[in-house]
Structures are given as C-alpha cells and as structure tokens.
Amino acid sequence: VHSTTYYYATMRKKPSLWWLSFSQLLFQTLAFYRTDSFRTTQFCRSNRKLRSSSLAFSTTTSKDDDKTTINNDNVCDVIVIGGGLAGLCCGALLSHCGMDVTVLESHDVAGGCAHTWTRRGYHFESGPSLYSGFSNDTSNNPLKNIFQIIGEEPEWIPYDRWGTVLPTGEKFASQIGPEEFQDVLLTHGGPDAVTEFASLMKRMTPLSDAAQALTSLAIREDAGVVLTTLFKYPREVYMTIQQGALLNEPFSKILKEMNITNKFVKNWLDMLCFLLQGLPASGTMNAVIAYMLADWYRPGVTLDFPKGGSGAIVEALIRGIHKHTPSRVETNAHVEEILIEQQTAVGVQLRNHTILRARTAVVSNADPFVTQKLLAKARNEQKTGLAMDEYMDKLTNTDPSSGGISALKSFIHLHAGIDATGLPEKPNKDFPAQWAVVRNWDIGVEAPRNIVLCSMPSLIDDTLAPKGKHVIHAYVPATEPYEWWEGMDRNSLEYKQKKEEAANFLWSAVEEYVPNARQRAVEGTVQIGTPLTHERFLRRTRGSYGPRVEAGTATLPGHKTPLKNFYLTGDYTFPGIGVPATAASGAITANSIISVFQHLKMLDKIKFPINK
Q1: Which residue from 415, 465, 544, 556 could staple onto 458, CB 3.0 to 4.6 Å apart?
Q2: How does strand 171-172 pair with strand 413-419?
Q3: pLDDT band for position 468 (50/70/90)?
Q4: What is the per-residue pLDDT for 40?
C-alpha cells in the first residue's frame, strides 16, 4: 500500500510546483534507498517437490587472481537466493522479460511462508489464510497484478464471512462489507459505535482513494520511475499527491482528530491493524488502514481462497518462471556464500561447493541476518566495502535505543485433521471457515497468547481433506516470545511438554466453534509448530515475522544496496510484511533490474479498477 504513497508524501505542500517537487523527491528517494534507515510465516516439510535440485556444475579457481573460472552452463542473468513469495515474484517478472533466472531454495519445496504440505491425505496450510482482490478481473492487489503480467494464476474460490469470538464468549460471523457490520457495531458497541465508525469511514474516503490510486508495480529505483509513474499514471499520481504526508502519518492522529472513543470500535481497529501489519492502530500508517477500510467495507466485497491451497499460488509463480526456458527454480539448493569481486556481486556458492555465476544481478530473498552470514567471508576479506558493511550492520540492528528496529515476535501453530461428523460441509453465519479468538482486550493485541487465528480451509475447498474429514490450522499471529523457547533441546522432555502446553491453548480456540475438537483429531495428523520450528524450516532468524516498524518512527530500506549488482527483497525491505507487501517488494526489485521499456510493457498488462 504505502510503496506508492511514500514517494509523494511532501508534494501537497506546494501543488503548483509539483513537477519540481517530483524531481526533487525522486532523487531524495534514490538517496534514501541507498543510505537511509529502514523497516506469512510458517513451517513444516512437504512431501511434494516442485523440482529437485539438479545443480552440478564444474568449476576451477585461478591462483593468480582468486577468481572462479566457470563453464557457460554455470552462468545465468540473475540469481535469486530464496524461493519465498518475494523471490518467486521477482523471478517470475524477470523471466517474463526474457532474463535467464535461477531461484535457489534451501528447503525441499518452494514458497517460504506460503508453502503447503500433505500428510495422510490432509492438505495443510502453512501460509497466510486471508486473501482478497483476486477473483475479480480488475484489482489493486500487487500479487494479482503479477499474475496478470505472467499469465499464470490459481483458480479462486470466493467466500464472504469471517468470524470473531469476543472475550465475553459472544460470537459473530458477519459478511465482510458494510451491511452486516452495522449490526455488529450496534450489538457490541451501541449506537455510538455506529456513529463513530460512519464518521471515520467518511473521513478516510479521500485517503482510501489516494491509497488505492497508484499501483506499487509502477515503482522502480532509478530515474526511470518518472516515466513509469508520472507519465504513465499522471491522474493517479495527482490523486496521491493530494493527500500528501497524511498518508504516511500514524492512524492514531486520525483517531484523535475524529475523537473516536467507543471502546469496541477502537478495539476492533486495533485487531485489524495488528492482523494486517503486526502493529496496533497507533503504530499503523494511515495508508495501510485507509486501504484496508476501503477494501473490506465496500459493497459486494469478498474474500478469495486459492483452490488447492496457498501452494497453488506458489505453483503459479513457478510456472511463470519455468515457461521461459532456461529459467528455473531449484529446491534443496542451500546457498553458503555470496561471491564478491571488486565490490560487485557476481554469484553464489552452494553447500555442495557448486558455484553459479550471475551476469546481471544477485537478489537475496533471505532475511538480512541470514544474508549477513552469506556475505561474511567476503566481508572478512574486505571485498564488500565499508558502505555495504555499514548498510548491513544497520539493517540487522534490532536495538531501538541505538537506531535499530526491533523484530516482531514469533508463532505457535496447531495443524490437524479432524473427524467432521456433525459439522457443516460449507461455511455459514453460524460456522465460519475462519475466525479470530480474543481472550482479553485490556492487555492489548500484542500480548502473548491473547489472539488466536483459526482456519478450516476444507470448508471452502473440500479437496483439502478426505471425505467426512476436515483440516484445521490455529496459530497466534506474531505474539509468541522467542525467549520462551530459546536454547531448548528439541528432543528434550521440557520441549515436548511446552509444545503440549501450546497445543492445549490453541485447541481451546478451535473448540470455540468445533465441539470436542481434540477428541476428533485423526491419529498421525496433529503437528505443533514453535518459534524454533520457524527458525529451523524457514530460516527465519529467531522465528520472527519480520521488522516491527511504527509509523513515523522508522522506514524500511529499498532493494538496491551499496554493493554493485546486489539487491535485497522480501518483508525486511520496502514495503514490509504480508502477502501484498512482499509481492510488491519482489516486483519493485525486478522493475529496478529490467529496462524502462520492459517495465512499461508489463504495466500495460495490468487491469486496475480505476481504469475499468
């Protein structure tokens, strides 16, 4: 969302000089991407391999200059380290533009936070459980726009209910959209809640229009951004400029301005902001909440589920890469080192000592802490340069007192197949496919084990579980402290007992809608994930969801780095966490590598509601 609004935040002050302001801001932005400070997540193995690693290249080393001499078969245009959503989106767009791309994934299946797996006929979702903006032909969703460009996409199943269990035990599963939510406001917040929410929606309308006006896929990190934004979308740029810096301010300022005091409204907004960005409303940008309010509370809105699960999204992106030979995705391809020559990224070395060289760029979709390790050898040999060393040190600083950005907490998960006797076969107002459980509003949405998200995707897509069964997933959304698990031996009794304690807490949330869920569990299907699981299987440092960036206090880095031909992509880069943001991050990275002409051709393939 804010990847487009950020660039135009200062223009509102002098609209008569917007051409000059744009030029000035453009170069400020380019400088920011190099020097300034910065800003789904799940686990488990899959028994389904999209493509096994076949990298087996011969290499020799020259003793004279310590450079690797490699046969042509070892060379491609762009290497992407990590097959998460951002890496796959980046790779798919680059491949679409005719570049020879190799995506290297350490795990035995690609997808990162969105990968899926099966066990005993049950299909488990490790990744995000809420998607929207996919089933319509026109959309502002960056991932949908990428699908439009590459010509590959999953089949989508629309649905329209999402449940909530309040601390009082009251439940509701209203349709998303404005109609039924009015009844929710009246029932749980009273007449004041209806009045305050209506006034807030009216106040946010111009911000919502601005937040949705310009696609993040138009952004690139060079002077070509003038052509791909201002000249391509002049009306949309102007709409965004009209709201200026307000889009980037904390939502708390709007709440104060509108005198929003109704407790239910404030709690509800806190929860939605937290589920979207990992922060309560006070720390969420206006652009994010404006986009969400417009998207969730417009007439006729639906949620969308990919038929076959989140893995169908991954498969579509991989098809987009593979359809342009010789581009490929390699699994079980663990990168050990990024190769640097003359302060330029030139390739990678794998764990099996295979070397692959890149003609144009190396892109890291690994988190910055892992990336730092991949650069360690070159840094020790003083090949990376002082600017890059300082850049990575700043990016991996998690101490706010010294200018760093703290990390979000981790997760605990419960996955299981259950007997469906007496349960519905389709979601309805009394039994939704997904629901949130809030135990205590007073301790805050970020408190450990306070909010649980539950999903039963087999209610939406019955192919995900055997007949007469359902599959469930429950987890805490980035509220589990890593410190509670740090240093534990995964084979110890202590660890097993702590996992059972976590499972019992999650089962209690499932049983808000599923009676006797624990007794329904199918033997051999119950799986419990912890922060250590996240760290181990997804290579997420300390099992974290990503950086905790409060609006107005810090910003995320761009994708270019001080190291020539080296880019970062993913949720530790602009615009941040979540599926739309990581897709946008992958796209911006790809845009910055390809030519402006290729970029403009891609934009022509996108269908936006505003241009309908």
Answers
A1: 465
A2: unpaired
A3: very high
A4: 31
Backbone angles phi, psi at 49, to 5 degrees: -100, 130
Among 65, 555, 83, 582, residue whose Cα is nearest residue 285: 555
Q: What is the rounded distance in angstroms from the CA atom of residue 28 to the CA atom of residue 554? A: 16
Q: Is pLDDT of 36 > 80?
A: no
> Of all residues in the chain, what percent are helix, strand and coil, respectively (each to 5)?
40, 20, 40
Nearest to 80 by CA among 598, 577, 559, 597: 559
**260-269 b/e with 16+ CB inside 10 Å = b?**
bebebbbbbb
What's the rounded Cα separation, in Å, for the pair 12 and 374? Answer: 43
Alpha helices, DSSP H only, in 167-262? Answer: 178-189, 191-211, 225, 234-243, 251-257
Residue 50 pLDDT > 80, yes or no?
A: no
Own/partner long-range contacts of 10-18 (Cβ < 8 Å, ≥24 apart): 10/244, 10/245, 11/241, 11/244, 12/241, 12/242, 12/243, 12/244, 12/245, 12/246, 13/244, 13/245, 15/241, 15/242, 18/238, 18/241
d(CA 528, CA 413): 5
Task: Look at residue 128 in the predicted model and tell me its pLDDT.
Answer: 62
Q: Do you know the residue count of the chain?
A: 612
- Supply the pLDDT for residue 610: 55
Written in H, E and C, the secondary structure of 509-544 is HHCCCCCCHHHHECCCCCEEECHHHHHHHHCCHHHC
The answer on pLDDT for 34 being more than 50 is no
Judge contact between 424 and 479, C-beta under 8 A: no
Determine the average pLDDT of the residues in 176-191.
93
Rounded Cα distance, 578 and 1, in Å? 11
Our CA angle for 495, 498, 499, nearest 5°, is 85
Please enumerate in sequence order all residues whose Cβ is within 8 A of that of 449, keeping only pairs 6 or more positions apart, or say none: 412, 439, 476, 479, 480, 505
Angle between helices 85-96 and 579-593 (to 10 degrees): 40
**Cβ neighbours of 352 (radius 10 Å):** 12
- Distance CA(304)–CA(460), nearest Å, equals 10
pLDDT at res. 287: 87
Strands 171-172 and 303-306 turn out to be: unpaired
Residue range 3-10: average pLDDT?
A: 38
